[in-house]
Input
Amino acid sequence: MSGKEIGYALIDEKAELFSELSHEIWEFAELSLQEHKSAAALKNVLIEQGFEVASGICGIETAFTGTYYGGPGPVIGILGEFDALSGLSQKAGATEREELVPNGSGHGCGHNMLGVGSLAAACAVKAYLQKTGLGGTVIYYGCPGEEGGASKAFMARERIWEKLDAAISWHPGSENEVTTGTNNSCVQILYKFKGTAAHAAGNPEDGRSALDAVELMNTGVQYLREHMKKDASVHYAIIDGGGVSPNVVQPHASVLYMIRSRTVPDTLKLMKRVDLQAEGAALMTETSFERVFVDGTADTIPNTALEKAIYRNMQEVPLPVYTEKEKEFAAKLAATYPAREELPGRGANSSQEIADKVSELLRNSAEGLNDFLLPFYTGNDFEPGSTDVGDVSHLTPTGQFTAVTFPKGCPGHSWQNVSCGGSSVGDKGMLYAAKVLFGTAVDLLSDPALLAEAKEEFLKRTSGEPYVCPIPDGVKACVVG
Output
């Protein structure tokens, strides 16, 4: 046996191990920076597979690395995530809303599969290096808190990504597609207001309402929206309403803000304007507030050379074959949302030729699954969301893709995706992604010209302003709540 078949075979041989590990993390469903059981499970497998594991990376308890050194050569990083989302507990394989744990958490973004699929790829790369004698290093990065914690950005602040020759990752999704373009930068700030308690009827003049301050701040931000850049956005959640007694002037209240704009400098400028709303609200209510910087992420720097390499591997690896039962399950989940009029994928919106190809693929696809590979497309598309993979991309060439683990038309962060991510449909997509990651890593390790091309492009794209980490020095990763 030679070439990539070595890694493909390992993933197939250990498919049950990887699927069981994904389901285990799916059941843990731990929130950002609280993924102690999930991190331990992933680290245990890495140790069993012969990796050198380091824990507590950059002072974050649930961050870790698993390294295999195969001799002098390129250093390739494979990124993994494993945090869940609150309020999305859902039974696996169910086609109706059924909470597994009342008010519990769930993997609505599929990070149970993301973490394990990337781990499987790292194991395959290790096997390849051992059997071929090719020099190189593979590092699996256990990155907690993507949904609220931004561990990769904290790692970027420490410049740890600069030691890599390239980084690759994937994300669960409803399309098999290379990820291209960029996205918003983002920061999260917690504003904790403090007032004075009093009887709301007996002596309201002695009270100073922290909740009033939160509400006035929110009102100020609503007016601010008219005067923001078109691609910017601001979101908030009141995480402390001051209690449940309306006859008490609320002495404390907190609101968590997420502030987004195209670049880190733009986001930090908008953040200062939101800060002013907090100051104004405190002044109006005669309260005080504490400002807690939670996390921040940068925009993403794409790399066409890596995108092409990833796509070649997406073509080489056979797509999953689904049973009739799996297709029926996915179709029932897809039917819980109205059918989308737009074609799947980014390329269909940018090229009529691609749109025609996608239309044909869609006509011949399963009712509930995009069970095909979308045509290759690269461009400078913009997505309004944010990811801490962006911070990695500012310090080393970085490539990503999505693989089908979810039904057609179901949005991210939904119970439908939680249900599918704990099923065999999710398993198949995860193992496909693992093989694509493995193959791409092998190409980078064995083809100096490819790596040189990716690095040259990276240097051109980052030759302007140097990377600025949105997280200030001294800020530590923290759990909000």
